[in-house]
């Protein structure tokens, strides 16, 4: 008989009536609203994983199962956001293919780097970078669409290097990858905000799917929870894409600052613990 919340989640179907059903409902009540919020934030400014992954861990899932199940729900939500942005014409497909290839290469390098370098030093570096990033975001024209666009070739090259660099970060550590992609694509590649967000979603979806396949093959995903939480993440992403259409740079700036603040506190607590 299951004796803990963890055993309960894995051994009892969600719809099975038994004495543990009330505790199981609490697990869903913790995760689903936060995953919805994460989907909304992720669709607008990236970084939804900073909200959703802690939600799974708060509910009592072991870390590997939390990461895997979070990957499933976020993949479902990102699929909807990517479709909506593609439908709105925000994804430059010719450029996106190069970015995806670069992000995969960077992620592979980052994962290998993580095996030989203590992430403590990386976290210290992030504690310096994040306040500087927040300062940039608060500037009046940080996400302005009036930057002089580069040629298609130059934009593609810059975007590939950005995807490669952020891919290294994603493979090494990961949280906030979408936020950094949006920031760098607008600031360095002079991509307009809508195309930067669309490109980010397409890259994120591809890397999420590849990671999810690995987790599924190793049976790390809690399927009932992942599917139901994924439905909430889909709803959050859908509403987030509509909000982005109406809010533009103003809404992205506000939510980006919130994501950076959450990320900064998260890393600081990890360094001090």
Automatic annotation (TrEMBL):
InterPro entries: TM_pro_TauE-like, TSUP. Its main location: membrane. It is found in: Cell membrane. It is a multi-pass membrane protein. The chain crosses the membrane at residues 28-51, 95-114, 120-137, 158-189, 209-232, 252-269. Keywords: Cell membrane, Membrane, Transmembrane, Transmembrane helix, Transport. It holds the Pfam family TauE. Belongs to the 4-toluene sulfonate uptake permease (TSUP) (TC 2.A.102) family. This is Probable membrane transporter protein.
């Amino acid at each position: 008989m299951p004796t803990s919340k963890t055993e309960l989640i894995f051994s009892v179907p969600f719809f099975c009536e038994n004495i543990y059903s009330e505790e199981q409902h609490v697990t869903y009540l913790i995760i689903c609203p936060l995953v919805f919020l994460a989907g909304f934030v992720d669709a607008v400014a990236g970084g939804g994983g900073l909200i959703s992954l802690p939600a799974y861990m708060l509910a009592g899932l072991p870390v590997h199962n939390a990461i895997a199940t979070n990957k499933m729900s976020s993949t479902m939500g990102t699929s909807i956001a990517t479709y909506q942005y593609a439908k709105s014409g925000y994804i430059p497909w010719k450029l996106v293919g190069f970015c995806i290839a670069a992000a995969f290469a960077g992620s592979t390098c980052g994962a290998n780097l993580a095996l030989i370098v203590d992430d403590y030093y990386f976290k210290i570096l992030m504690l310096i970078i994040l306040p500087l990033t927040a300062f940039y975001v608060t500037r009046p024209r940080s996400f302005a669409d009036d930057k002089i666009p580069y040629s298609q070739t130059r934009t593609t090259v810059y975007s590939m290097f950005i995807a490669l660099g952020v891919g290294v970060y994603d493979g090494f550590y990961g949280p906030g990858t979408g936020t950094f992609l949006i920031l760098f694509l607008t600031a360095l590649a002079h991509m307009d905000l809508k195309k930067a967000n669309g490109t980010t979603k397409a890259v994120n979806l591809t890397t999420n799917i590849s990671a999810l396949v690995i987790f599924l093959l190793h049976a790390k995903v809690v399927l009932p929870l992942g599917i139901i939480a994924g439905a909430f993440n889909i709803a959050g992403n859908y509403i987030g894409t509509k909000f982005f259409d109406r809010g533009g740079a103003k809404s992205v700036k506000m939510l980006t600052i919130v994501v950076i603040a959450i990320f900064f506190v998260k890393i600081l607590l990890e360094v001090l613990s």
